[in-house]
Design a protein that fits this description.
The protein is α/β, with parallel strands linked by helices and 311 residues long. 36% of the residues lie in helices and 12% in strands. It contains 9 helices and 9 strands.
Length: 311
């Protein structure tokens, strides 16, 4: 039996000779996941109800208004609490957005753009694409991109699938022509280009450890200080490695999780810690992807879907 091709070495034998803007040691990307309203819900005609981290009980075969209200907390209270705190520290986030969630609260997405944040694609529903038939997946990608472009007033250029992409996802994103990058990888602390033919496609690895989802039962984070300490340790180590080569760090946030008043202080402590250094570049994921292309000698990216040409 032949083994599928995989890359276990990355940049080990050929570290990139690049420099972040301003000579920064580390590029830091804060990602605010906008999923609420796209979760599975029997009331919306889905096959089951999606649980939340605080609640283990699942209502089977019937609508669950209580569970729905847990998700509603994010857009109602967590959204502005998180973005306002980031903005106090001069940080602009990438709002990784499920289109069905955006369609239920379009004013929040338009507001995020007006406040200077990036809108990227997180699928139409908050769902895995693993095993999805290629034709169906291509339709989901196009529907997501079209919906967010209409709501945000600007075309999204990034994509991240919930947990598991399919074997076709990256190819379909490239064929779509509107995507500069995707974050469907967890295998490095630096961006890289997707292998294969065609226009260069940037991969910005994401992270599930420097992520507030660890507040889930058994996830390891109990208090906001746990989040700040763990993410701060990761930040310090990457800055240390950044003395000799650039590094990138992703911090995943969720409106309904760290947007709670008992957890948001952890994010504040982390931002104070990060801002104490002067050699860090806080950037959206689109900015990092554009910079990576430029540092590697590639021309400025334009969407083939709009421009009608390759990149």
């Amino acid at each position: 039996m032949s083994l599928a091709p995989r890359d276990f070495l990355g940049y080990r034998d050929a570290p990139p000779s690049v420099e972040w803007p301003g000579g920064a040691r580390l590029a830091v990307s804060f990602v605010l996941n906008f999923e609420e309203g796209a979760e599975l819900s029997v009331a919306d005609g889905d096959e089951r109800n999606e649980p939340v981290y605080e609640v283990r009980e699942e209502v089977v075969g019937a609508a669950d208004p209580c569970m729905a209200s847990h998700y509603e907390y994010g857009p109602r209270a967590g959204f502005d609490r998180i973005l306002s705190l980031l903005e106090e520290h001069g940080v602009r986030a990438t709002v990784s957005t499920c289109a069905r969630a955006a369609e239920r609260a379009p004013s929040l997405i338009a507001e995020a753009v007006a406040r200077g944040h990036e809108i990227s694609c997180h699928g139409y529903r908050w769902e895995t694409h693993s095993g999805m038939e290629a034709g169906q997946e291509a339709e989901v990608i196009a529907r997501t991109w079209d919906s967010l472009r209409r709501i945000a007033g600007v075309a999204p250029v990034g994509w991240h699938t919930r947990s598991a992409s399919s074997v076709n996802t990256r190819r379909l994103l490239r064929e779509h022509g509107g995507f500069l990058y995707d974050s469907d990888a967890y295998n490095d602390d630096l961006p890289y280009f997707a292998p294969g033919e065609g226009a260069p496609h940037v991969i910005l690895p994401y992270s599930f450890d420097t992520n507030d989802m660890r507040f889930s039962p058994g996830g390891g984070f109990i208090f906001g200080e746990d989040f700040a300490r763990y993410c701060g340790d990761a930040f310090d180590w990457l800055c240390r490695e950044g003395e000799t080569r650039p590094k990138m760090m992703s911090v995943g946030l969720h409106q309904r999780i760290i947007g709670r008043p008992g957890r948001i202080g952890g994010l504040e402590r982390l931002l104070h810690h990060m801002r104490a250094r002067g050699d860090v570049w806080f950037a959206t994921r689109a900015e990092i992807a554009h910079a990576w292309r430029e540092m590697n000698g590639l021309p400025e990216w334009t969407p083939a879907r709009a421009a009608g040409a390759g990149n």
